Predict the 3D structure of the following.
Amino acid sequence: MSKGVGKFTLAAVFIILFAALCGRSNGDGLQVGFYRGKCRFTDVETAVAAVISASYRRDPTITAALLRMQFHDCFVNGCDASILLDGSNSEKTAIPNLSVRGYEIIESAKRVLEKICAGVVSCADIIVMATRDAVSMSGGGRYTVQTGRKDGTVSLASNVDLPPPSVSVSDSIKAFAAKGLNADDMVYLIGGHTVGVAHCSLFMDRLYNFNNTGKPDPTMNATLLATLRARCPQNVTVDNTANLDQNPLSSLTVDNSYFKQILMRRGVLQIDQELALDPLSSPTVNTIAKGSGFSAGFAQAMMKLGVVQVLTGKQGEIRRVCNATLSS
Ligand code: HEM
């Protein structure tokens, strides 16, 4: 090798190393634009966005479905699409996941991608990209997501340890901290309740028999109490739903109106109301309700949620069918 070529090679190695160090990989092997150039002539993020946009036009409530799905996926075993796996004892079968919706949206994006570039795009990445797209279609602002996650192969109902609706703010802070998310991240993320619904059974105690007092939760606004009692009568077999964001003009929009509602004591779940009342979270709730920073803060918290305990590189697999059935 001539001296000149040797110098050139050395320079090239430095440039590549420098580029790798300056790249947007977060050290977990994730990268913005991981799939660029990996799916023939198709841009993977554009293909996912097309599926989500079509689903959203049919049903704008998919944003709520996908937000909750991403939370329930990332909080249990990390963002590895383990929530999607079928099986007699998989995560899907755990009680908090029985009302998770939107599995078919992820499947349809996966089917499109498998036709173009089989075995390339993980289901875990599809959940994160799809949620990002739906949030932006619902007015929540668009954020960048890193990709390169692999899919997990373990999915057990017994691993599902999600906080219940009656969780205290301090216990919830602990649960989020265990996932590397701080108290502010938690407040912004629970702001996901700016869209979607809750079943009466999950807040019935607040309406009729709070803490076994035989009385309603004294922190609930009286008008809301009357509205929710009408929606959720006692001794009926149907389990109705109520919007988590009680501003009817904003129940499909990802904005800060949920925070304004909880400041007016119009939170539906116990944790919703507690966020506004507990001194551990109320300053952040006030800032979000009164300011214009919700979209940016929510986006940042969603990006952090999306990198919880991810599998990358040689870990995990690229599942070919997102809901593939576990053998055991
Ligand atoms: C302490 C934390 C949390 C608790 C206790 C909690 C609890 C709940 C409960 C009980 C429901 C109603 C489920 C049903 O009726 O079947 C619900 C719905 C929902 N949650 Fe959460 N949640 C929490 C955090 C989050 C986070 C971090 C997100 C998203 C980033 C989120 C997004 C949603 C959405 C969008 C819905 C409505 C789903 C739909 O309409 O299908 N939640 N949550």
